[in-house]
Amino acid sequence: MNFDNEKKQALHKLDKSKKGHIDEQIRSLIEIINQHPDYYSTSSCAGRIMLFIPAKKKMDAVWLFTSHKPIKISDIKPYLDNLPKKTVWCRMEPPIIHIVARNLDSADSLLKIANNAGFRRSCILSMKNRIIIEINIPEKLDAPIAENGELIITKNYLKTLIEHTNSRLEKTRKKLKNLERLFLQQHN
To answer: I need a labelling partner for 35 at 20 to 30 A (CA). Which of 61, 78, 120, 186 fits?
Structure first.
């Protein structure tokens, strides 16, 4: 199958994803990338803050709370008042985007743009059947907050942790906007 047909099929599936939509905070960037003849996205996340119970396999982790926007302690209070008898972590995950490029030249061009926008962990993931690029940054923050149904941190530390997760999430939003701006500059 050729690139254009693969792109058409992938974008059709993207609209019918399990989640049902692209994160609002990354939608315009994904639409701009998908309009370019040399690229299409296969998956994306705008970054999020979450409370979860980890597992050996990522797919087995239990998400208690997730938000793609900055949060307040009041947003997670219902989950803190009813903690499971497991270890609960607070995590801020940075944005991640998977994009297929038409060829190595277009992949190289996109990687340079991503790097200039601050996405320093971007790379080519695969070149076997398709050239798949991952756009990523090392802005993740992880901290255990509860064990056996009890908080293991103070309320002041929790407040500080929320401030840091929100700050990192906002920092990544600026990098997403910068990526969008640089992509448009390069391809208009």
So the answer is: 120
